[in-house]
Amino acid sequence: MTAIRNNWTREEIAAIYNKPVLDLIYQAATIHREFHDPQEVQVCTLLSVKTGGCPEDCSYCPQAARYHTNVKVQKLMEVNEVIDKAIEAKESGSTRFCMGAAWREVRDNRDFDKVIDMVKGVNSLGLEVCCTLGMLTPEQAQKLKDAGLYAYNHNLDTSEEFYDDIITTRTYKDRLDTLSHVRKANISVCSGGIIGMGEQEDDRIGMLLTLATLPEHPESVPVNALVPVEGTPLEDQPKVSVWEMVRMIATARIIMPKTMVRLSAGRVRMNLEEQALCFMAGANSIFAGDKLLTTPNPGYIKDQEMFQQLQLTPRKAYKEEVTA
Ligand code: SF4
């Protein structure tokens, strides 16, 4: 049995990342079969419950108020509207429902109370409920947990060394602190990053190193390919190749064998064969629906066709209870 390790070194991870790509896929696929059912892929839905107008300056994000993009600012949705969307997502086969708000951090105000009600409502539908709301205090994390929150997403985005090139309004340490508050509240941790932002391969390895050497591996690691949006500082970044995605996914799978590796943003620019390669390399989750917060994503019908073609089955909710 492959051991779960938290003592990876940068050199070890680099050696895996740089293996001949077919060998890398083979090793990842082998480990994947040891820990997961290779036919099973979890389908998640991500809904933007509060859109745009964000004070942060993440260079990739069309929701930052300072960039001139086509994103229309929308205040926090009503609880019943969100529950209706969650029911729709469940009926279309999603087992995890993630609610995203374009906030720097959670504030203890009426909007947070509303989010708490959303969490309770989505939880009562039997969906794994996840939120991504920015930075959290330990008390806020506990409040979310008490309301039934299953997972919290808070991406590291990139390496510590490259972080300042992408975001200046918060620090890497802020990020890690929130992850630690989430972990302490016994909420399942979802944290990954984006490639194609102008980083070096060493930065990709650095981010994986940080994730794989946390005291516990995140239960979920989303791997995103940048979808450049007009009006953001990264609007002209070239497209990420499928081999870069495959290397990231396969390396994540090998160094964090139990983790759900999520093939996230950027899927809209991949064909079926490219997505199949990512599943072969160890990805076992996708986001469904025609939008990922504000960027395009393949629709439900296309995904259903893909599941049929590749003979994949959707994973059930709460398959592995990671929280007490
Ligand atoms: S990624 Fe999140 S925190 Fe950064 S600008 Fe966008 S909404 Fe704000």
TrEMBL record:
It catalyses: (4R,5S)-dethiobiotin + (sulfur carrier)-SH + 2 reduced [2Fe-2S]-[ferredoxin] + 2 S-adenosyl-L-methionine = (sulfur carrier)-H + biotin + 2 5'-deoxyadenosine + 2 L-methionine + 2 oxidized [2Fe-2S]-[ferredoxin]. Its EC number is 2.8.1.6. SMART domains: BATS, Elp3. Gene3D superfamilies: Aldolase class I (3.20.20.70). Keywords: 2Fe-2S, 4Fe-4S, Biotin biosynthesis, Iron, Iron-sulfur, Metal-binding, S-adenosyl-L-methionine, Transferase. Its cofactor is [4Fe-4S] cluster; [2Fe-2S] cluster. Pathway: Cofactor biosynthesis; biotin biosynthesis; biotin from 7,8-diaminononanoate: step 2/2. CDD domains: Radical_SAM. Binds 1 [4Fe-4S] cluster. The cluster is coordinated with 3 cysteines and an exchangeable S-adenosyl-L-methionine. [4Fe-4S] cluster binds at residues 54, 58, 61. It is an enzyme of class 2 (transferase). Residues 39-267 form the Radical SAM core domain. One of its GO terms (molecular function) is biotin synthase activity. [2Fe-2S] cluster binds at residues 98, 130, 190, 262. Homodimer. Belongs to the radical SAM superfamily. Biotin synthase family. Catalyzes the conversion of dethiobiotin (DTB) to biotin by the insertion of a sulfur atom into dethiobiotin via a radical-based mechanism. HAMAP family: BioB (MF_01694). This is Biotin synthase. It comes from Ohtaekwangia kribbensis.
